[in-house]
From TrEMBL:
Source organism (scientific name): Triparma laevis f. longispina
Domain EF-hand: 77-112, 115-150, 184-219, 220-255
PROSITE patterns assigned to the protein according to its UniProt record, in alphabetical order: EF_HAND_1 (PS00018), EF_HAND_2 (PS50222)
Keywords (A to Z) from UniProt: Calcium, Repeat
Record protein name field: EF-hand domain-containing protein
Length: 459
């Protein structure tokens, strides 16, 4: 009868007496009433029995403490309680819940544990759906309990923390999210959404929406995607519209950005570099010289929160030889500095002020004398002229030929744009990515945004 979600731990003293009392109570109730007629009834009765027992114990602790706050639940008690709630929600007993059912487990604990909506969002940020859109409790609950306990441990400092958090949120809203102003972020989200809506229905299902976020090029981290997935589809019909999502997007990202800003430490940059070094070492072994396209793809998959534009700008900072190869130690150094700077309040403040000044200039909205539409159209037309078969694919050499003929670029700018072109296994490139992202990449570099974030920007 043990829960399939039970954790392994030593049996505490007194367990035998507790189980004896439970057995007596089960026999008493089953003798004098018909409340227990099945295994489901027995589970429900045991759950209620232990909840009442916990409440009595908590009440006694509170009374004995002469007015002090009652002790918080231990990890084992919390895991047991969440496990019982999970079992109740897991009607078919398969060990999985969908995101809405899983969230309901923690919402049911909201009042008892003093969990705010914000805390529940933090918990949901850790919950990964599998390909079937469900969450496995067994792997997730210990980490969720840790999240709850960490939050509870900070409650003694809550007042000061809330003041700091309010300041951090305001800073995050005043600055840029993922290196871009709110209007640019929303514009690019809309573009990604429309692109993913292949049947032009005006909505995406949950699986399509998750893929849309991953493929958007906006560098959403796994946690950010998890939070968004838990908040969209407000009407519960399984369909997500862009209008349903936009009002939530900016505030959620600003809130998460504020959390990152608050936890920023001087060691973060070194930690990021160490993590990246491990990723590259695992992928390429001891050879530090790697192919540029493979290195770019690895950065995109590293869950760093970097947009395609920022990755392309990072690639413009490293030396790439004639064989299209680079030293990944140099790349990880530059990348770690940029990621750390994105979380640095002072650098973000400088960047936000700089962007505000740029918007006031007459030529704002053009790069190299071209608007976004003009640049994209010119590149696309020249790409299509070479693409006689209309396949949407060109070789990396043909893409370079078009970029050089269409745009007057410095070597670092050319290097950044070409980083947008990732060849497939046959060496061919989907050139629409280059058309779509070249303007944003060049705007990012020409405007000086990257110089503010780059670890070399202070030199």
């Amino acid at each position: 009868m043990a829960s399939k979600h039970a954790q392994s731990f030593a049996i505490p003293a007194g367990t035998s007496a507790v189980l004896t009392d439970l057995t007596k109570e089960v026999l008493r109730v089953s003798t004098y009433s018909e409340d227990i007629n099945s295994s489901e009834d027995l589970y429900a009765f045991c759950y209620s029995y232990f909840i009442e027992l916990l409440e009595r114990q908590e009440s006694e602790m509170y009374d004995n403490a002469e007015g002090d706050a009652p002790e918080r639940m231990s990890n084992d008690d919390l895991i047991t309680k969440v496990g019982l709630l999970f079992d109740q929600a897991d009607a078919d007993g398969n060990g999985f819940l969908d995101r809405k059912e899983f969230k309901a487990v923690f919402v049911s604990l909201k009042e008892e544990l003093g969990l705010s909506n914000k805390v529940i969002k933090q918990i949901m940020a850790e919950a990964d759906e599998n390909d079937d859109g469900v969450i496995e409790y067994r792997e997730f609950v210990p980490m969720a309990v840790d999240v709850i306990n960490i939050i509870e441990a900070k409650q003694d400092f809550k007042e000061n923390q809330e003041l700091d958090k309010m300041d951090a949120v305001e800073d995050a809203k005043d600055f840029l999210l993922h290196g871009m102003p709110r209007e640019t972020l929303e514009e690019m989200l809309k573009s990604a959404f429309i692109k993913a809506d292949k049947d032009k229905s005006g909505y995406l299902d949950r699986k399509e929406f998750k893929q849309c976020l991953k493929a958007s090029g906006l560098g959403f981290t796994k946690k950010e995607i998890n939070v968004m997935m838990s908040e969209v589809d407000l009407d519960g019909d399984g369909k997500i519209t862009y209008d349903e999502f936009v009002p939530l997007c900016f505030s959620m990202l600003a809130d998460m950005m504020a959390d990152k800003m608050k936890t920023m430490t001087s060691e973060t940059e070194e930690e990021i570099k160490g993590t990246l070094e491990e990723v590259f070492l695992e992928a390429f072994g001891g050879d530090s010289v790697v192919n540029k396209s493979e290195a770019t793809a690895l950065l995109r998959d590293a869950d760093l929160g970097l947009t395609r534009v920022q990755i392309a700008a990072v690639m413009s900072e490293v030396k790439i030889d004639k064989k299209d190869c680079l030293d990944y130690h140099e790349l990880t150094t530059v990348t770690a500095g940029v990621v750390a700077a994105l979380l640095n309040v002072e650098r973000q403040r400088v960047l936000a002020d700089q962007m505000s000044d740029l918007k006031a200039q007459e030529d704002y909205g053009t790069v190299l004398g071209l608007t976004q539409d003009q640049m994209a159209s010119s590149l696309d037309a020249n790409f299509r002229e070479l693409d006689v078969e209309g396949s949407g694919l060109l070789t990396i050499e043909q893409v370079a030929q078009v970029v050089l003929a269409t745009l007057e670029l410095s070597p670092p700018q050319f290097q950044a744009v070409m980083s947008l072109a990732c060849p497939d296994d046959d060496g061919n490139v989907w050139y629409d990515d280059v058309s779509e992202w070249s303007y944003h990449t060049l705007e990012y570099i020409v405007s000086g945004q990257h110089a503010v974030l780059s670890p070399r920007g202070d030199e």
